[in-house]
Specification:
alpha+beta, Aspartate Aminotransferase, domain 1
Length: 105
């Protein structure tokens, strides 16, 4: 399955929770009922999740192989609440999206 297909599947699985697909910085994104982005598909096929630093979910996500903090500029200015998860871990995306959805903003 492609990264886009995996992304759409996550959106469909969370639709009953009021999640809808939109865009963030030109990339497909998942928004909550209030219109806040909590996950986004990146051009490289990875997905980023707003898990909020210093939470159990954030720490656990960063321990997965290939994950990192999100650096949208590529210049070492990371967004510490956001974790990049590669497509190789797409089977974890729904769980991570649920965790991101449940985090306070």
């Amino acid at each position: 399955m492609s990264a886009e297909e995996n992304f759409k599947q996550v959106g469909a699985e969370l639709a009953d929770l009021g999640v809808w697909i939109s865009t963030m910085m030109g990339n497909p994104a998942l928004k909550d009922q209030a219109g806040k982005v909590f996950a986004s598909l990146q051009r490289d096929g990875s997905m980023v999740f707003r898990l909020v630093r210093d939470t159990v979910e954030h720490t656990a996500a960063l321990q997965l192989a290939g994950t990192s903090l999100f650096d949208p500029s590529g210049r070492g200015r990371v967004m510490k609440d956001w974790v990049v998860v590669p497509q190789s871990l797409a089977e974890r995306w729904t769980d991570l999206a649920e965790a991101a959805l449940s985090r306070p903003r």
